[in-house]
Design a protein that fits this description.
It is a single chain. With about 260 residues, the chain is an alpha/beta fold. It has eight helices and seven strands. A seven-stranded parallel β-sheet has the order 3-2-1-4-5-6-7, with helices on both faces. It is globular. Its EC number is 1.1.1.30. This is 3-hydroxybutyrate dehydrogenase.
Length: about 260
């Protein structure tokens, strides 16, 4: 599954799932562009680390995914891309009648609209090359729902629909568009929540993970960022050339219920 000679942009990729995907794409030989809105020394050092470890070109480009013009400029600054991974996302939990409008707008902008803008910017170059891969990171919540997450679930359902539409518009052109739907993934953000959950429920680590955090995930195991990255690599490979307009769940059986 060599991706040598391909350039991949991964939005929201300086930590968590995005970083895991960037590392696996680089491991497969792709040059990668990391992204966040922070533009810190650590962001650039992370790109240098990936380049050194995997023998590829790795760059960091700042872009605020809540702003459509910056989303499109990211693709332009990268010089186009062969692989686009729309991963950037935020979350907020609240009943609908109390949901802050500014939080709704931010979640829709970052989790959904950013993918529209980057895809629109990337497609002309992919069409010119006759090859492209668009991988959208949705969620189990792109296929099902939970209470108090209205904006996130609306955005992730939208990402699934956007993936299908792009697949239909690019069918037969050497371009695919798919959505990965992770369940709970062990990221630094999730890891940091475990001690608080242990204290709140008076449980040990393994019990709070199995009985509280992974209650809806039948495997009772977290997915890893490397597993999500490996799924992205597969979708970018020749083996997946006829997989387009669909979802791949990496959720330990969550959506099988």
């Amino acid at each position: 599954m060599s991706l040598s000679g391909k350039t991949a942009i991964i939005t929201g990729s300086t930590s968590g799932i995005g970083l895991g995907i960037a590392e696996e794409l680089a491991r497969a030989g792709a040059d990668v562009v990391l992204n966040s809105f922070t533009d810190s020394d650590e962001d650039h050092a992370l790109a240098e680390k990936i380049a050194k470890e995997h023998g590829v070109t790795a760059r960091y480009i700042k872009a605020d995914m809540s702003k459509g013009d910056e989303c499109r400029a990211l693709v332009e600054k990268a010089g186009g891309c062969d692989i686009l991974v729309n991963n950037a996302g935020i979350q907020f939990v609240s009943p609908i009648e109390e949901f802050p409008v500014e939080k709704w707008n931010a979640i829709i902008a970052i989790n959904l609209s950013s993918a529209f803008h980057t895809t629109a910017a990337a497609l002309p170059g992919m069409r010119a090359k006759g090859w492209g891969r668009i991988v959208n990171i949705a969620s189990a919540h792109g296929l099902t729902a939970s209470p108090f997450k209205s904006a996130y679930i609306a955005a992730k359902h939208g990402i699934v629909g956007l993936s299908k539409t792009v697949a239909l518009e690019t069918a037969g052109q050497g371009i695919t568009a798919n959505a990965i739907c992770p369940g709970y993934v062990l990221t630094p953000l999730v890891e940091a929540q475990i001690p608080d959950q242990m204290k709140a429920h008076n449980m040990d680590r393994e019990t709070v993970i199995r009985e509280v955090m992974l209650d809806r995930q039948p495997s009772r195991q977290f997915a890893t960022t490397g597993q999500i990255g490996g799924t992205a690599v597969f979708l970018c490979s020749e083996a997946a050339a006829q997989i387009t307009g669909t979802t791949i769940s990496v959720d330990g059986g969550w959506t099988a219920m």
